[in-house]
Design goal:
434 residues; alpha/beta; nine-stranded mixed beta sheet; 17 helices; ligase activity
Length: 434
């Protein structure tokens, strides 16, 4: 069968799958079997090449921000909008974006890939740019030790032909500068000294005592030379940030829940500057940050019975910790939903590395999900009052909404719990399609 016919077959399978309401990666699987080089061949045609964004946390939101920033500067951007991380997921997204003649209207591809899938992807497609965010203890039952995750990301760095943008403050990411291929360059994004304690690395999270001592004795510590960063997050204030971009001060509005998303914005901006090169308009890029809306489940807000309800994805100690620090518990009705499916990570022992003391003031209205009782026990150890425990997500959500009073609502949830809650909420109110 000729390549055009294979591609048309793939597009037909995608159309049929969409009519049945699912199977987003299945058309990509068809292409993977019938034309294995499809993704590599199509992406090779893009004049500005391929961007890969990876790391254990922040990929989806950072990818969304980078895509929006680049589009605001006039670039036509192809991306895997559903977040399907497999090569077949990228293939399915390509089929969805191509016209009937197999043409893709794009200048550059910006792809979110998790660490393991990125390794397989870069064997087929050499990215021109890579943004590597962090290495944290995320779903260790899938990937093993965090140094295994680092080794995966090192292969992405080695495969990148143009520029690798690295997180200066994560020691495992920073060390990847030694793995960049000859001829490729390294650029950085980072934090001011004042903000570093707010964004602990995995090593900091594992040694709270050392972190505390470092903060207390900061003035007595010898200065450590860090590489110069193109973009530095200097200060955060509610929904605004202060950024140093190429040595110049900028203030940006970022209406995304959580200080970690403000750091993700610095990462997306640093990447965009590299892709755009001399054509980058820094002032307009900073201004565009104010128009970025949350990715699904990452601080996404829906309106239920006239009140806002935020969905906050939590996957590891650092992410949960920063989500908790982003708003006062007294201001919200709070629900926690913990599942342990494969996509969540089967081992939920990481919950014991999260400090839930900040929830004591407002308590948790209801705990739900497959591991509801485990979560309730964890909260009890931190003396956090739990109103009720209801493992069934739909029953818990209805109870939560009914008993929230006049307070805005927030739900901390693992990945599959978030997907289930979005589906249930879709029957109650408008929820954006994924």
């Amino acid at each position: 069968m000729s390549r055009p016919l294979v591609r048309l077959l793939g597009q037909g399978v995608r159309w049929a799958s969409s009519l049945r309401g699912g199977g987003s990666a299945f058309p990509g699987l068809v292409m993977e079997k019938l034309h294995p080089a499809f993704v590599a061949e199509e992406l090779a045609k893009l004049p500005r090449g391929v961007v890969v964004i990876s790391g254990t946390n922040g990929k989806t939101t950072t990818t969304k921000m980078a895509v929006q920033l680049l589009r605001s500067q006039g670039l036509r951007v192809f991306t895997n909008r559903t977040g399907s991380n497999f090569v077949r997921g990228v293939a399915a997204s390509l089929l969805a974006e191509m016209d009937a003649f197999g043409r893709l209207d794009a200048d550059v591809a910006v792809l979110e890939l998790d660490e393991a899938h990125a390794v397989h992807f870069v064997k087929q497609v050499k990215p021109r740019y890579a943004l590597l965010l962090n290495v944290m203890r995320d779903q260790l039952d899938r990937f093993g030790e965090i140094d295994t995750t680092r080794r995966m990301l090192s292969q992405v760095a080695q495969a990148t032909t143009g520029t690798v943008v690295l997180n200066r403050e994560d020691p495992r990411i920073a060390s990847l500068a030694d793995h960049v291929a000859a001829g490729a360059t390294v650029e950085w994004f980072g934090l001011s000294d004042a903000l570093r304690p707010m964004f602990p690395s995995d090593d900091d999270m594992r040694d709270v005592l050392r972190q505390t001592e470092d903060v207390e004795l900061d003035s007595e510590q010898p200065s450590v030379t860090r590489p110069h960063a193109d973009v530095v997050l200097n200060a955060v204030k509610a929904n605004s940030v202060e950024l140093d971009v190429h040595g110049e001060h900028h203030t940006a509005t970022i209406d995304l829940y959580g200080v970690y998303n403000q750091y993700n914005a610095a990462a997306a901006l640093a990447l965009s500057l590299q892709v755009l090169g001399e054509s980058a308009d820094v002032a307009s890029l900073v201004d565009e940050l104010s128009r970025v809306t949350p990715a699904f489940g990452r601080g996404e807000t829906v309106t239920v019975e006239g009140k806002p309800l935020q969905l906050l994805l939590v996957k590891n100690p650092a992410g949960f910790r920063l989500s908790l620090a982003s708003a006062s518990a007294e201001d919200y009705a709070t629900m926690v939903a913990i599942n342990d499916a494969y996509a969540d990570g089967r081992d939920v022992s990481w919950l014991w590395d999260v400090d839930f003391d900040s929830l004591r003031a407002g308590g948790v209205d209801i705990v739900s999900g497959v591991r509801a009782w485990d979560m309730a026990l964890r909260l009890d150890y931190d003396l956090v009052d739990v109103g009720s425990v209801e493992p069934d997500l739909e029953a818990a959500l209805q109870q939560f909404i009914a008993n929230s009073g006049d307070r805005p609502m927030r739900i901390f949830c693992t990945y599959t719990a978030m997907l289930s809650l979005r589906k249930i909420l879709g029957g109650m109110t408008h929820v954006d399609a994924i």
